[in-house]
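Repro case for the chain-ordering regression, as requested:
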Amino acid sequence: MTSIPISDKTLGVNFTDANEATILVWAPEAESMDLILHHQQQAVPLTRIDYGYWSLETPLLQPGDRYLFRINGKNEFPDPASLSQPDGVHGASEALRLTDFEWDDQAWTNPKLDDYIFYEIHTGTFTNEGTFEALEQKLDYLHELGITAIELMPLAQFPGTRNWGYDGVFPYAVQHSYGGAHGLQRLVNACHQRQIAVVLDVVYNHLGPEGNYLGQFGPYINPKYYTPWGGAINFDDAWSDGVRQFVIENVLMWFRDFHIDALRLDAVHALKDFGPVHILQDIRRCTDELMAQTGQRHYLIAELDLNDNKYIAPLEKGGYGLDAQWIDEFHHALRVTAGGERTGYYTDFEGISHLAKAYTDAFVFSGQFSNHRKRFFGTRVDDNPGQQFIVFSQNHDQIGNRMLGERSSQLMSFEMQKTMAAAVILSPFLPFLFMGEEWSEPHPFLYFADHSDPELTQAVRQGRKKEFAAFHAIGEAPDPFSLESYALSKPQWELLTQTPHQQMFQYYKKLIALRKTQPALRHLNRRQLSVKVYAEAETLI
Amino acid sequence: MTSIPISDKTLGVNFTDANEATILVWAPEAESMDLILHHQQQAVPLTRIDYGYWSLETPLLQPGDRYLFRINGKNEFPDPASLSQPDGVHGASEALRLTDFEWDDQAWTNPKLDDYIFYEIHTGTFTNEGTFEALEQKLDYLHELGITAIELMPLAQFPGTRNWGYDGVFPYAVQHSYGGAHGLQRLVNACHQRQIAVVLDVVYNHLGPEGNYLGQFGPYINPKYYTPWGGAINFDDAWSDGVRQFVIENVLMWFRDFHIDALRLDAVHALKDFGPVHILQDIRRCTDELMAQTGQRHYLIAELDLNDNKYIAPLEKGGYGLDAQWIDEFHHALRVTAGGERTGYYTDFEGISHLAKAYTDAFVFSGQFSNHRKRFFGTRVDDNPGQQFIVFSQNHDQIGNRMLGERSSQLMSFEMQKTMAAAVILSPFLPFLFMGEEWSEPHPFLYFADHSDPELTQAVRQGRKKEFAAFHAIGEAPDPFSLESYALSKPQWELLTQTPHQQMFQYYKKLIALRKTQPALRHLNRRQLSVKVYAEAETLI
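-- result from build under test --
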């Protein structure tokens, strides 16, 4: 691979101190490449340099200007590394100068991962306004609750106005309706002033189904591997170096230019890479180089469904070097113990004995046969400390992938919700909450999207129907494309002052305070943990 | 994974000391399974046991009997782990008792890999008879030549009567027309008595296109990965444990029951396995267990096109633990240096400077950009000794994948052939010859096959045409399905006594003797090697 620039973003449009735009576009099989200055109706040719890149320095493009790239003298497309798409995914890109933001968080130090208590937020539904600005108004509340990190669901510009974020097609552009790049910078700055870390959910395993123009520039997709969302991102085939640089520069941008404290890498089991250096190893190495340069800590956290210890093993042991990973299995065991249904992937889970195994071993499946997966599954992680694992009783997926999007509040008694909260917050792992669970929000969190292509809309509806069949769900799924589904998914802040919601909030607050003040709870050494199962009484001690 | 039995084969049909057949078949989604005793017209039901296996002990099936399995009370198929297919791939299986063979090689010790000088043989064309028995008649000749190991192209039962071997569909059955299982045992026994090791080429990356009934029994194929030969073998998806056991038991069978000294694993870059333990790591581990039990050494050698050092790194360093690998790049650099054409994958190769790099670094591409692959390619292997790499100036692929199948004898001068022979045999790697090159055999080695399905025949013809287009080959390819292509591919032993063939034979014999007697040549430490390039004179010293 070409060496990755650590201290500055090079892809897309950047500006010199003299306000000259330096432009770098990767399009290895293009014959020609022009910058189209949208308003001036002017075209400026780029020069082909090594390894499929095209380059230009020009004073003609200034921050705030709209632009496109014209490939082979024919069609014009937005910038794959666009920082801003004010007119949506099909519109022109807007040049931004990221370094304009004046940071005020010099006193901030990213805490040890041990101290993270995550709070997951979908920016569009967390507040009525659905913006970073409105989110900022809630930071004092979150500080009072006691969580130490917010985790923002993906922010990459997505098609339409409503989306969970996993359909993003501009990995460098912050969703414009949320407040764009500068809005995010302001939010992170405000979080750091309240001693709240910011985790960003990023998606490097697929690209959204609408408005993805990356394929016009180069082979971002490798059709040789299958993922549930189509072709995999091309990390090991012809021209993969350009794709790898695109992803790694993106990681570095969030850390360096947005002061993001940790990334939550979506579904890394779908990063298909048989090359000698796995893309996650390269991301780790470059992140380490950045940290050495800046002196700031940054964490790499994976969503991972493989129970494979090499992902969280250090590079020097041949691992992928990730700091931590989610354990969905803790959730599944907890839900089944709490009396939840046992269809779909829950079929593999017994009640309290599996929950006990999750407490002691992190992975419930550490080598046994899984009837759901139809294979022996998992490795042991005895040497990995508790802060390498993130646990939850709810998250966007576990709620929103239910047909009716019910939170625990609609499925469990008030007392059971409290028990589950304690099971998570007092666990020997890192606890993770989903927005609103702390006041037992009764609204669902539904799947919602907003595509302009009717065929795609229909395909998504069909796909979800099929998915629910595995869970033997009965009845009609709410329409993901209706405005109601979106509106219904907003937590109701007004409940917070009411009974019993205020009581639940106080309870969460106390649990969090307890975790923070009791050394035994903060010491995440599972080897000192003893779990006793009293199966008849359904009790763990 | 279930634990793999090391000391005995369990899959298919085996016999107890009391001559009772113990039968084990894997068919995880079958509803019922019957043993069909072919001649008795009798059906005996098997019992379902754990993890998709079906089991039976019966005195009714005896060595020499034909049998089939009936799935779900409907169709009857030969045994996936059949040891013998006397009536071809579509016929019934024959029960064999492998342990009947009386070995006479107790004095044999598999030499260190350092001492291996390989000689590749296609059993069907090596002699007029095309049998193990006829091959055995040539062992004294091979001993005189001085090679220390024969490498047999794949022997798994293939469709029709003529095949390179890579279309095999019964990985446990030795091609019946060659002499079957007992014939191979006799041959290995005879080799060992002449101090010749036996290497067997085995294919675990795909199954042949005709007569593959394995899919009737279970998901041997994982359609989520693409290989040039169709879906990949299922090493990491649902029910993959049964497939893994099928492959690992096959490895162990060759070593334990056939006394094979080393396996040449075909195209391991196409073994797609994202599980926590790569199938090659499992093969290594089980091979180590077998060696510990028997006290005999066995080697695992890979054909590998990834230039990725983890394949030949030890398990304890996170590697896949293979003993050695082919380096095609040495061949490519040598051919270009010798004035060969520079189309197809040769476009990446310069002449003598790349040959010099192969001598010092083993991999020509150890991180540079490859124009042919369109990516940065390769890792360094500075810590790996010479005996981990196998080099050649010709092999079945490099000859037979040419449209006209020309050996070097038809492409290079007599003197150049001698230079190339010296470059290989005196290299700091393990040398590898292709049958007949030692007497400058002028006959080609063509691609040949024999399918009963006309559509498949046509598809193979088309596929080869397309392949040759990349090499800008001109003219009509010989028909792989003609008897002439097969007959023409047989080396002409009668030439051996004639001029200049006898001279070439004597030259090879001397080079091999030189390698064996000069300690400097046998000491495969590349760190003590100094290569100087005199580019103008096209000379390496």
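Ordering looks correct now. Chain B has 15 helices and 25 strands.
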